[in-house]
């Protein structure tokens, strides 16, 4: 079986038990996946998968999720309707106990693109949809569509709505940015989880920075998402801006956002960086999920473009953009204060508290 060419995810055992037709879908990585035609029990183990299924209107079909979905993003516990009621929670989701998965009898599991583990789950008779590649910014849109193809016609219609929204907002940013010469673009270093971990050219981060009117210092780095670098390399790049995302992912070795930022400010190794001297170090907003790895990445593009070129985006109100996104795709009406708290990386206000 060649994982990148054709993945037949329904074993004969599953077919015999379900006696269902299958549909063939193409993921963003151009692989072919076979799944049950009717999906009623979903396992969301892959980090961004829960958000995608919520957007596609199928949260009520999620019967199994990673423990990180309930613990890492406080806004998701408020915005998502069923997250706190998921019957089966899987710990160590990237290396799950296969027996725990089999007991839940899911129709499909959304998982990472890790062939060895996918094969083990598949051998247990469970259909698996591995994570599509996201090396281009457009893959934010196409990855959602690959999930929609699994979930059916209603999900496909929602995916089309998201694609239209995505295209509209992308066109708005491109129109405002225009053709900014390279020497007028601020250099940007995008840190993942911690100051000395980044995303190279084999991810969509450098493209997003370019679309936002910046110049990614890692554009020539032949590496993917979550690559370690040295202090010396960062000092050599000497970026004008530093953006940090994926904070608070304790399962991935990431500290809370405020602690990450404070430790960087206190670390004298970084004191000579232009971004530090000019106080141009920012933690990306998060909300229900990391902005750099889910469907909110289109919000991150707008946020970054306004941060780098405020003169070109005077009409852009990120508070309103966040409220619109949450209403349209999560069906949750944020107040002005809630949207402001998301943009400032503040948690939800607890009932009866501040």
From TrEMBL:
Superkingdom field: Archaea
Residue ranges occupied by any Fe/B12 periplasmic-binding domain in the UniProt entry: 41-312
Protein name stated in the entry: ABC transporter substrate-binding protein
Gene3D superfamilies to which the protein is assigned, alphabetical: 1.20.58.2180, Nitrogenase molybdenum iron protein domain (3.40.50.1980)
InterPro entries in UniProt: ABC_Transporter_SBP, ABC_transptr_periplasmic_BD
Pfam families with a match to the protein in the record: Peripla_BP_2 (PF01497)
